[in-house]
Amino acid sequence: MKGRTLLATGLLIAAGKAAGTESLWCRVQSGDLPGVNKAARITAFAWDGAHGGVRAQGAIKTSIGTFDRGEGVTTTITIDGKAVPLSHSATGVIWNGKTFDFGGKVAVVFLVETATDSSASPSEALVLIGKGRSVLEQGVISGQATAPNRCPLL
What we know:
Elements: H1 2-19, H2 24-30, E1 41-46, E2 60-62, E3 65-69, E4 77-79, E5 82-83, E6 93-101, E7 105-113, E8 123-130, E9 135-141
Antiparallel strand pairs: 1-6, 2-3, 3-4, 4-5, 6-7, 7-8, 8-9
């Protein structure tokens, strides 16, 4: 019986992947992204020293360029000094996060305090970026929402 349960679970997971129902969070966690054939180099960062008692740090070198935060009250992400076009729901004060560098593609997951969030409940944003600062995919989970299909990256 145990073997049948494992087989059924495996088939359900494979069916979910084939149907494309796996969330961006889970695909980044597993490295199951188109054109990716190597394990990610993961780098943690903190860009807002006002939250969590950590000191803000600077830029992060990746295979597609140097990531840094933009200037101003609303923080943006830059690569080699040029802004990355983020969705409106992903802009705000970026606290901290991680980069997942797959070599040619970089996923950036971060906590962001948007205009609709409270500092006690920031949103979590995930942006998959390719060469030339092109945003391939992105998603935001509101600080007030739950996401049952999100695999933890932070």
